[in-house]
Specification:
Blueprint: E1 2-8, E2 14-22, H1 47-62, E3 69-72, H2 79-86, E4 93-97, E5 105-106, E6 109-110, H3 111-116, E7 122-128, E8 137-150, E9 161-171, E10 182-187, H4 194-205, H5 208-220, H6 231-257, H7 269-280, H8 291-301, H9 315-343
Parallel strand pairs: 3-4
Antiparallel strand pairs: 1-2, 4-10, 5-6, 7-8, 8-9, 9-10
Length: 345
């Protein structure tokens, strides 16, 4: 099992891995969930969230003038995590989607009931993408926010934690919508206006980037298909695949977000020259092409055919293209070596 922490800019650009945890579950512990309640968090898998937060805290010390926010989905709705953030005043902030089934209590009420009683601060629309047989739609959401105090679970010895809650709930939807959208976010970053609430919601949408990263890791790098006999070998291979997946994801993202920057920010001179010669069957130009041009050429090596619907290659196609580019560059180096040996210096 892998639990990774990936850094993103507020524009959604993947900056690299901050933390990585890798372990295997003990088969003898299967089916013993009820016995875990009385155990300290250090003996539970949920401890991974505290380890991840502490890794971000180390980076926060190195970047004291940058606001770092540790973002987690509903699995990260662990009171110990909020307690850790409360007692790390110089550390990173938190933004966690709350899990409704955990019956979060604030003051003397259930969190969801509390937020329903708050006034609507405003509305905004989001595009819900098509999924399987579900068509895409524009969803209208009403937004509420409030300062709340999270009470610890009954069996916990921890104290209550002051946070801000932001609730976005879909309204005015038709009968065809069987699962209306609703997010309940808990954050240690202050929320005092609708603009603040919308910004926190935007930050949470960036979390989807790690799902794209994991899909790249599985579909492009085929990390789940590795047939290695020892855990150490799997971890070594995983370390390479994780960096490769980040590079592919970063290329795809930057090729769309910053298409006009020169590609030598991401590719070595030898790489982009061989790439251009292979795709266009002509000598490379004196100046590096734009990043978008380079990404599309890498996609072409991977079999990408641009269309009006898909003008840019995806991560799997880029992975195939980069593999071919690596082989071409290695072939170019070998050819230069052979000719140098034959013709002399």
């Amino acid at each position: 099992i892998v639990h990774d922490t990936l850094a993103f800019s507020t524009e959604g650009t993947p900056l690299g891995l901050v933390d990585l945890q890798c372990w295997a579950r003990d088969p003898d512990e299967a089916g013993k969930r009820e016995k875990r309640k009385g155990r300290p968090i250090e003996e539970k898998e949920s401890y991974k969230w505290l380890k991840s937060y502490r890794a971000v805290a180390e980076m926060q010390q190195l970047c004291p003038h940058t606001l770092l926010v540790s973002v987690a989905d509903r699995e990260g709705d662990v009171h110990d995590l909020f307690h850790e953030a409360l007692h790390t005043p110089a550390g990173p902030k938190l933004l966690v989607r709350s899990e409704r089934s955990r019956q979060r209590q604030v003051e003397d009420d259930f969190l969801w009931n509390k937020m329903r009683s708050e006034p609507v601060a405003g509305h905004f629309e989001v595009l819900v993408p098509r999924k399987s047989t579900r068509p895409s739609r524009k969803a209208k959401l009403e937004v509420r926010y409030a300062a709340v105090t999270l009470r610890p679970p009954k069996e916990s010895q921890l104290t209550a934690v002051p946070v801000w809650a932001v609730n976005a709930r879909e309204v005015e939807y038709g009968p065809e919508v069987t699962e209306p959208l609703e997010w309940m976010l808990l954050t240690t970053v202050g929320v005092s206006s609708l603009a603040d609430a919308l910004e926190r919601l935007w930050w949470y949408t960036l979390r989807w980037g790690i799902e794209v990263y994991h899909r790249t890791l599985k579909s492009a790098c085929h990390v789940e298909d590795r047939k290695l006999s020892a855990a150490g070998r799997i971890e070594n291979c995983l370390a390479i695949d994780l960096v490769a997946a980040w590079r592919i994801f970063s290329l795809a993202k930057q090729g769309r977000e910053t298409p006009n920057v020169p590609c030598d920010l991401f590719l070595e001179e030898e790489e982009w020259k061989v790439l251009h010669a292979a795709v266009h069957n002509e000598p490379p130009p004196s100046k590096p092409p734009s990043l978008r041009e380079a990404v599309r050429m890498i996609g072409a090596l991977g079999g990408f055919l641009p269309s009006k619907r898909y003008p840019d290659p995806g991560t799997v196609t880029l992975w195939r293209g980069l593999l071919r580019l690596e082989a071409l560059v290695e072939g170019c180096r070998l050819a230069q070596f052979v000719y140098r040996q034959r013709d002399g210096p």
